[in-house]
Amino acid sequence: MEAINKLELHYYFDDDSHDIDAITRNKCEAELLAIISEVATLLDIKTRLISEIPLEGGFKDKWKALGENSQQLQVILMAVGLVTTIYFTYDPEGDARTKELEQLQIQELKMKLQQINSSDNINDLAKVTAKKLSKNLKITKRKSNFYTHLNNDPKVKSISISALDNKDNPFSQEKIIDRRAFREFILSTNKLRAEEDDNAQIELISPVLKDGNYKWKGIYKDQTISFNMHDQKFKESIFIDGLNFHAGTSINCVLRINRELDEIGEVKIKGYSVPTVIEVLDGQSPHETPQGKAHRHAKSMYDKQRDMFV
Description:
Layout: E1 3-13, H1 22-42, E2 48-51, E3 55-56, E4 59-67, H2 70-85, H3 96-114, H4 122-133, H5 137-151, E5 156-164, E6 176-178, E7 195-206, E8 216-220, E9 223-229, H6 232-239, E10 250-261, E11 267-281, E12 287-288, H7 290-308
Parallel strand pairs: 9-11
Antiparallel strand pairs: 1-4, 1-5, 2-4, 3-4, 5-6, 7-8, 7-10, 8-9, 10-11, 11-12
Helix pairs in contact: 1-2, 1-5, 2-4
């Protein structure tokens, strides 16, 4: 027999009515179900959701979560309730070391959930799970969408999201989010911090040999890209020193990759730029640029300082 737990989304209104705008409801449901799906996928837990009849009391949407393990379902639904209604302060992009640690922690959570039993503290495990998964960009974006839809409907005064057992008893105390707090969960921008490859190699296809704001073309990691050349000293060396390019000429450089989130939380590349050319490779010995030498020295000093505090 499949274990059953439930999740309830309770809309509170500023009047005594029990109806809700259909578009608001459908959009909010889509975002919340996407969060549940993402959490279940990240934790490798199979579950399917079934809608129940909406209830009054403001307006209540309720879904049954079906799966093989009741404790696993409780953790997922409680974690979804927490991650959607508690504001976590964090840097969603962190540095590479932090990201690696977070991935290891999620792997530990997955192993713990595979071995979960009735003696485990479900509430504590759900809190840890929510905190770790709150840093997921897809969950962050879906949560932002959810509260954006709520904020656009003036009738919604507040909401709560509760995990329930099969008899509709809540696993924890209901947490109500007032309308004034909706904006705290909404992303102010979809732009992400630019990612940098400080040892990128680009084979030049069409360098720009004319002064002006034109895009260059090259092959980076077997993909053709267009990019802005922002290294002014390198551009000057083309026009003043007569730097020549040949078929197969490449540059080693710092490549800045501009990114942003789309509507479902996927990271999309919006453009490339090169702030520093480190060296030019034209089939002979690499020719290091003065700015490239300065960049390498600065990076070496920075890495040494970081290692001192690790």
